[in-house]
Each structure stands twice: as C-alpha cells, then as structure tokens.
Design brief:
Low-confidence stretches: none
Shape: rod-shaped
Mean pLDDT: 88
Radius of gyration: 35 Å
Structural class: alpha+beta
Order of helices and strands: HEEEEEEEEE
Number of helices: 1
CATH topology of the largest domain: Rieske Iron-sulfur Protein
Number of domains: 2
CATH architecture of the largest domain: 3-layer Sandwich
Strand order of the largest sheet: 1-9-8-3-2
Distance between the termini: 113 Å
CATH superfamily of the largest domain: Rieske [2Fe-2S] iron-sulphur domain
Bound molecules: FE2/S2 (inorganic) cluster
Helix content: 10-25%
C-alpha cells in the first residue's frame, strides 16, 4: 500500500486563518462589547436610581369613629393623631431615646426597644428617653387636615376642626 501525496497547494488557495488571528479577532469583539456595555451603563447614570422619599407633610382623613383620646396612626407615618372636644393634635411616635417607633397604649406610649414610657401628652414617665415626644403641626382647612411631621409646635397646641 502506498500513500500518494495530495495535490500540491496552489498559490490561489486561501490560507487557513492562523490561530493567532482568530484570538485577535475575539479580543477585538470583546473590547467592542465591553465598550458598548460601558457606554450604555454610563448613559443610565444620570437618572435617579431611587424614588424620593414621601413628603413629611401630608393630608389625612381622621376616621369618624375615632373615640376621643384614642390614637390614630396613619399607615407609614410617624405621628399619632388625636381628636377630642378641644380639637385635633398630633404627637410624634419616634422615641427620643434612639428613634424606635413607640406604640400608643391606653396610658400613653411605650417604646418596645428599651422600655421608655410616655404620657398621652408625650411627657416622659419612665425609661431612658431624655425628652418628651414632640407635638407636630396640624393645619385644618375646611374638611382637610394636614399634618407636618417635621414641624414641632408647643405641647398642648390643638387645632379646631
Ligand atoms: S429607643 Fe425608645 S427607649 Fe430606647
């Protein structure tokens, strides 16, 4: 059995692409892809990535069935709203010790974190809290009640509805 050599390569045949050229093309495509992704990422940067926090001033509808002296805490808010014969007032429910949210009770407020207790008017009656719960600004215009969670008013300030 004899091996016969194949036809001799012609000068007109295309050269097979060397491995070095293939790797070079792959690296160029990788760099181009990285550049495209980096550009797309850079174009997205100026847009805000988070939503702004909700306003600290909000309108609220106080339930008609709210008994006098009972607290109404609107969902997601940090004030307890009260309505009695003297008017409407709002007390912050952010503990003045380390900022936990206090719970409204029949005797006032209790902090679940370190046990501070507050009277219904926010005065400290026990625990490590260094200051009373501040009262917040209430504005009534017609049937609209607006609470400003950032503006304090003197304790005892009530607004007629
Ligand atoms: S955070 Fe309320 S007692 Fe410490």
């Amino acid at each position: 059995m004899t091996l016969t050599p194949g036809p001799a390569p012609s000068r007109l045949d295309a050269d097979p692409m060397p491995r070095r050229d293939v790797l070079g093309l792959l690296s160029l495509w990788s760099m181009a892809s990285a550049l495209v992704f980096a550009t797309v990422g850079a174009l997205r940067l100026p847009r805000a990535a988070v939503l702004p926090s909700p306003s600290k001033k909000f309108r609220v509808t106080i339930p008609e069935t709210l008994p006098p002296g009972a607290a109404f805490v609107p969902p997601g808010r940090s004030v307890a709203i009260f309505r009695d014969g003297d008017g409407i007032h709002a007390v912050s429910i952010v503990c003045t010790h380390l900022g936990c949210i206090v719970k409204a009770t029949t005797a006032g407020f209790e902090c679940p974190c370190h046990g501070s207790k507050f009277a219904p008017d926010g005065a400290v009656t026990g625990g490590p809290a260094p200051a009373p719960l501040p009262w917040r600004q209430v504005t009534v215009s017609g049937s609209t009640v607006t609470i400003d969670e950032e503006t304090s008013v003197p304790t005892g300030t009530k607004v007629q509805a």
